[in-house]
């Protein structure tokens, strides 16, 4: 019997028996702060390999020059679930898809939601799609590099958005971070409608730290409209703080030097500037804390 | 009077009057986890531009193919002060220098020490050298991408090295992070000589979290000898943990799915999988927490 000519199928209409044969690929890609100079070759290769690129419209704009001729699904904010589902389902059905986030998709990014969608659809390892998570430079790193070296010692990242997380959970974290002298990076500090949270965060942190503690505000690092300011805990609320601002609050050891914000690692607890070991200390051994010196809480006695 | 021929000067012997004229450049460069696919074009350009490359010998090896024909100063661990001084002083004297770190030089990296050396030598903005800090992908991001999406909600980074920081400061931070339900990333968890700290950290965190809390161990992410393992809070100490291991400890909401570690952001508190808003919630407004539902502390009720 001669073969019947088949009607061409639309890409969305791959029949179930064919789906199983073609295993799609889902890249979850962090493009870094925005400028291509800070996007890794691996992220660029993932976008180049994709036939479909999915992302929040602002991020799609940042990679506009890389996606000419490709199918693009761009959605607005608060449409994250739809975006993740589109990316996962199209990749499951055989497409090579890049779901792009700015910064690192694994830090407050879309990577978590991708796994939740996969779980919801009872995906198993070996099923389509194959997952490839491509890390990027997160806002923590890009913003810190703009203002100096504020994150050279222990730090916390806290999102002030209470759209999805109960506010009491967030305040408990702010209080803990402040009390234990972490450098604190606040993501999503405020939006047009949401302005109360950063004020309350300032009040909580102020209970534990001096008003002169350095605070940096960085907006749109490495993008055209980059802005940054150095202030302190008593005054940083005088500046405009919005959705694109990252707020970096120093620890008790953070200092300002020539307009840079610096958190020291503690070398001067043990060494002279010639690299010699201070009396009573041993290289390669735990720091010996002298009770007389009163430096048990202080990494950089001056 | 005819000019006298001058003896050629060695590069180190630039006379003081010439020093002031040539302003050197000091790049402080994070090269990311190690594989060139994860090093940004900006970092590669900085290394290409440098005449002198300074770094810890392991990191110099990672960029070996990029530095042929350049002058290289490689030093061992615990020689950080000497390394920073060499880089700063040579750049001050007019050279273009790249001080390279793996990961991000601003996160537990050399950037802090550079500013301390500059402060020590009473450097002012506008003086030589010009500073250019180039961010890289930090271990947090690279390690997270290897095991899934563990850092999609609030997290802390804590170094367990007590070589420069008093151990009581560190334990206070571990306790605060554990009590406020942060995901915890432990840098420098152990070394050949320093093995007690990770055991004590486990005991502190276990007081606040279930023994089944997911824990990921990642070693040498994106390098030839990459290893990773997924365990839990009661069992992760059974694995080998060394200087190159990053330990990621989940929050109370972190789950394991098909061998991946995932911390959800909280979308299912507010939305259905079709993207519709749940009863009682409003998109763009604070999460409404129902006391009956008992989810005030829980982002992903199942």
Reconstruct the topology from this structure.
Two copies of one chain form a homodimer.
Chain A: H1 16-19, E1 25-30, H2 41-49, E2 52-56, H3 57-62, E3 71-75, H4 80-92, E4 96-101, H5 111-120, E5 130-134, H6 139-147, E6 148-149, E7 155-159, H7 167-179, E8 183-187, H8 196-206, E9 214-219, E10 227-232, E11 245-249, E12 255-257, E13 260-262
Parallel strand pairs in A: 1-4, 1-5, 2-3, 2-4, 6-13, 7-8
Antiparallel strand pairs in A: 8-11, 9-10, 9-11, 12-13
Helix pairs in contact in A: 4-5, 7-8
Characterise the protein shown here:
- Two copies of one chain form a homodimer.
- Chain A is α/β, with parallel strands linked by helices and 302 residues long.
- Chain A contains eight helices and 13 strands.
- Chain A has helices at residues 16-19, 41-49, 57-62, 80-92, 111-120, 139-147, 167-179, 196-206; strands at 25-30, 52-56, 71-75, 96-101, 130-134, 148-149, 155-159, 183-187, 214-219, 227-232, 245-249, 255-257, 260-262.
- In chain A, the strands form three sheets. In chain A, strands 3-2-4-1-5 form a five-stranded parallel β-sheet, with helices on both faces. In chain A, strands 7-8-11-9-10 form a five-stranded mixed β-sheet, with helices on both faces. In chain A, strands 6-13-12 form a three-stranded mixed β-sheet.
- In chain A, β9 (214-219) and β10 (227-232) form a beta hairpin.
- The longest helix of chain A has 13 residues, at 80-92.
- Chain A is globular.
- At the A-B interface, α2, α4, α5, α6 and β6 of A face α2, α4, α5, α6 and β6 of B.
- β7 of chain A pairs antiparallel with β7 of chain B, so a sheet runs across the interface.
